Every structure is written in structure tokens, then in C-alpha cells.
Amino acid sequence: MAMPQRYVTDPRSGFCRANSTFFTKRNPLNLPANPSLDVTTFISSQPHRGTTAFIDAATGHRLSFSDLWRAVDRVADCLHHEIGIRRGDVVLILSPNSVYIPVVYLSVLSLGAVVTTANTLNTAGEISRQISDSNPTLAFTTRQLAPKLPAGISVVLTDDVEERTRGVDVVGILSEMMKKEPSGKRVRDRVNQEDTAAMLYSSGTTGQSKGVISSHGNLIAYVARKISEVSLPDEILICTVPMFHTFGLLNFALATVATGSTAVILRRFELDDMMAAVEKYKATALTLAPPVLVAMINGAEKIKRKYDLSSLRTVRSGGAPLSKEATEGFLEKYPTVVILQAYALTESNGGGAFTETVEESRRYGAAGKLTCDVEARIMDPNSGRALGINQTGELWLKGPTIAKGYFKNQEATNETINSEGWLKTGDLCYIDEDGFVFVVDRLKELIKYKGYQVPPAELEALLIIHPDIVDAAVIPFPDKEAGQYPMAYVARKLESNLSEKQVIDFISKQVAPYKKIRKVAFINSIPKSVSGKTLRKDLIKLATSKL
Fold first, then answer.
1. Short-list 320, 359, 319, CA closest to 339
2. 235 plus 210 within the same structural domain
């Protein structure tokens, strides 16, 4: 965001003492002034030299930009004139990754209808609760997933089927809609940037999942930022995340289309499938959660023997802080690849912090500098006082990507976004003298041991560098004397006989006494959200169920 002229900021950190605000050091964001603009129209108006928009990693099927926009026009026409979708109607997408999911997103958004997505792994009960909350008019899904939907909702099937699915009200098949010539009746509702575009349900790592309301203006701001950041327009990216997740929607269904990049779509994530796709399609960039990055380090010899990764230039990591040890370990194994980190929330629509250059990536442990679309404050969670450089408190963000609030939940909205538009991230952070953001931990997840505060992320970063540990999570375990103490859930390598005592000793040598892990349980895999965040609430429930 552009810094107000009346304020003087520190040239290194971007901190302004007059209002205790950190301003971004990035170039200012160029946003469209027209208030009557939907995100699809904004994306389609961006010039680029790209030819292939999407590739199906499994089949090699390609969707060109010209075919993509032709399909968007046809699907939007069918939705409007045949099914009756109008501005403000909610449309649910329950589907695995596909080269055609971006067609659905762009079509729905062009009409001013609202996109909501559901995790394909969710149970019928969980999906029913989301549908009851969001009240969609229509659902896009596959024949296999359709039975998870409650009766009464109209469905467009995203896969070709020879026979209708029993008990499902099928009103269209996507492939047929993409073949129909537009009716020529182009009169549609006027869409404004303030209108709701998406209602994505946050992962709920610490509580009940909530529908995050984002406007067309929020999504336009994200896309505009990605356009300003693109230095390599010929990027070939592997879509390693589900498209029902906020990053899958924002980055792979919207931003790559605006920049002219090519996205190779993995239907589901498998490490070997991802590596094979990098080799086959000469991919230049990957986006990974830290555990996948650690898996690439541990399996580096086998991976490099089996796959040609010479095209790979960049790995972007997000979802959790990446330790110095993991970063250095990766660069040692893959010296020609740059690691860039990023920090954002569903509620910030990509706004937050990121590293952009090799030089910035050398600031180990940092999430990066503020993105060009936000300003930040560090707030003392106890006194509510705004803090300064190198002082740790809750990170607050403000800018054009910050969501409007939570659907039908004014109380949660008021708790999270204040009257001035500041988003309270719930993350404990500090910003250093050069403007780098460091994420210490989730504020609500700090372990309170005898009055001391222990950040689980710090202990997890140490655990995953142990040669016998594949992944780990640290949670608070209730204790009458201490209040809580750190307990670790550890996923060992298959052949490992690592013991509880060895894990405890490994950590105790590296941390202050109050941070020591005092209990260890071994588990096959650590439960994660789709964005790679550890679901500590699930582990807390497991650990305390036997009390």
C-alpha cells in the first residue's frame, strides 16, 4: 500500500513511529479504479504472451488460453440462461483437481455469483453442515462425489457420464456446456468490486470452520499483485495443492491465467507424481508445505537418480515457518533451486509477507517482507499497545485483499476484523530492522508452562531435522503443577526404532529447561489441513481422550 505522505517512516524497516505502523517496502500496487468490475473481466483484460493455460499431469491434455476463454463464455451463458444463475447466488464446487475447474470458477464469478468450495475428503455430514450454512443454489461435482450431497440441490457433473446418477438432480454436464454455442443474449447483472465473490471455509485448525467472505475487489487486488511480481512470464508451475483451497483458487485458477503462466494440474498430490511432472513438463516452480520439502531433502539421492529436475528454478514454501536447518539442507541437496517463503491467511487473500529474491531468501527463518498490498502492526496481546521493531506481539494486517468478514457470524467478524479494517491474524510475530516478518507461533497455540510461553513451532522445527523423524507436531498437555507442558507427536521413518527417551534427550540439549518436551507419542502421520497446517486440535483431542 502507498505510504501516506504526512508520515515519516524508517527507510530500512518501513516502521512509522507516528502511528506505530509498518509500511511495505515493495512497489505500490496498481489497482483498477472502475468500481463496476468483476475479477473474471479483470483477468481476461490482462495482456500476456502465454499459449497453454493448463495441462493435466496424468493425461497430458492441454487447455489453451483461447480455448479456456471460449469455454468460460459458453459455461457462463448456460449457467445464466439455462439454469438461471444470478448475481449473489451461491455455487458450490465439490471436485478433485481438474483443468476444467478454473473454467467453472471464472464462469461463476463473471456472473457475480458466489463461489464456495468443499474439501473432497469431507464426510457427507460435514458437507451438509457447510451447505446448510452457505445455502448454495447449484453444485458442481463428480458422479463419485455426488452421493455426499444432500437431496434437493441441483447438480452439474464435471465428469462425462453415460448414465444419470440416481437420486441426484442433474441439470447439466460441464463438457456439454463447454460445447454449446453462446445464445448471444449477453445482458447480465452489473457486478461491483464490493460484491461478494468467494466464500471459502477456513481450515479451522483451532476451532469451528467458518465461511470467509471475499469480494471481487479482494481477488482483483491479489491478481494485480501477482501480475506486478511476475518476472518470468514463461513459468510452468505444478499445482500441488487442492483447488478447493484458497491458494489453489487464488493462484492456480486466477493468477496464473492473468499472467500467462502454465499450470500443470495434479489430480491429487503424490511426491513421485509431482517429480515425474516436473521432469515431463519441464516445470520451473513448485509450491510446497514444509513436510514435503523435508521429504525432498530426506529422499534427495533417490529423487535425483530417478528424475531430471534441471528445469526447476524455484520452490515456494508456506503453511508453516521453515527452519534454517531445513532451508540449508534443501539448498545443499538442490543447489540450483531457490527457496522462497510466504505467509498469508484465508482471511487475507494472499496478503502478508513473502521472499522475492535469492538475497531475501538468505534471511533464514523469515516469512519475508510485507507484500505490496498490506500494512502491518505488531500488537501486545495483553495491553493492546502497538509495538515497534524487533518486538514480539500479534500481527495485524490491513489492505485491499483483507476479507470482508465471516458469513452469518458477526461476532467472529468483530473479533477478527476491527472497525478500522485491521485483520487480527492470531499469529505471534515480530518485524526486524530490515522489514522482515518472523512468525513465532499461533497466539492461541502457545503452551503455558509454569508461566513461561513455549512456541510449538520452535520445537517442531528442531524435531524434523532429526534423521529418524519424518514429521512432528507439538501440543500442550494438561498438568496439575505446571498448567501445561510440551508433548510431541512424532512420525518416525519406517525402519527407525527411535524411542521416547531419545526424542526427549535430543530436544533437551537444544532448548531452555522450560521448553523441554516431557512426553512423546509415535504416530503414522501428522494430521494436516489442505494447506499443510498441523491440526493440533485433533492431536490435543487424541492425547486428552485417555485422561
1. 359
2. no
